[in-house]
Amino acid sequence: MLKISGLNAFYDNVHALKSVDLEIKQGEIVSLIGSNGAGKTTTLSCICGLVAARSGSITYRDKDITNSPTHKIISGGIGLAPEGREVFPGLTVEENLRLGAYARRDPGGLADAYSRVYDLFPRLKERTAQAAGTLSGGEQQMLAIGRALMSGPELLLLDEPSLGLAPNLVLMIFELIREINKQGVTILLVEQNANLALYTSNRTYVLETGHVVISGESRDLLKDEGIKKAYLGQ
Question: Closest by alpha carbon to 201, among 78, 25, 73, 17?
């Protein structure tokens, strides 16, 4: 579904991604883990066209989307729930969700998109007219994911969905991530909680200072002593 080959990206003179290779097959949950500054968010930003690739390629459904405009990438079937949620605090829940559907080519599908999001996140349905800035952290995370789903993506990019949330809310969000995947959405998950990422995903890539240093089946990496020591606190 998505293939990244030899991807290099820079912030000014800082070499953030160094020949990154990554592949996601339809129906998978693939996780991307690593320490702060490893290049995880930069990878997602390159996929979405928010950060320019210096070299290498990104193909989605056999189409080269490297450095394509973000709105075209979203229209093509990729959605992003960014790190820090980034909801529009002065707009209502419904208005935030509507903004997520701006790239839809089927205006008649808007009602179905709302229904899908509200079925997944009943709390949002109870707060449709409430300003997003007054929601709890967990509700804002639901809104960020729901907004990304409003475009009807086939591939959903999730950047640190557990960040800043209480443990019980983290577990609920990850249950919803699994449910979204069961509904047919392929997921690329960037997550600071390596344990949860490995338990949730089919395959995992580990980034260190812009390099992919190891990749494989998540269940196998859970048993890897180096992974345990570096990322699982064991």
Answer: 25
Give yes or no for a contact between 148 and 81, defined as CB atoms under 8 angstroms apart: yes
For the beta carbon of residue 26, count every other beta carbon within 10 angstroms.
12
- Beta partners for 11? 14
Distance CA 71, CA 61 (A): 17
Helices 110-120 and 93-100 pack at an angle, to 10 degrees, of 120
Q: How far apart are CA 200 and CA 189, in angstroms?
A: 9
Task: Indicate the pTM of the whole model.
Answer: 0.92
Q: What is the mean pLDDT of each run of 10 residues along the chain (234 residues)?
A: 98 96 98 92 97 97 96 94 89 94 80 93 94 93 95 96 89 94 97 92 96 94 86 68
Tell me the domains of the chain and their CATH numbers. Answer: 2-231 (3.40.50.300)
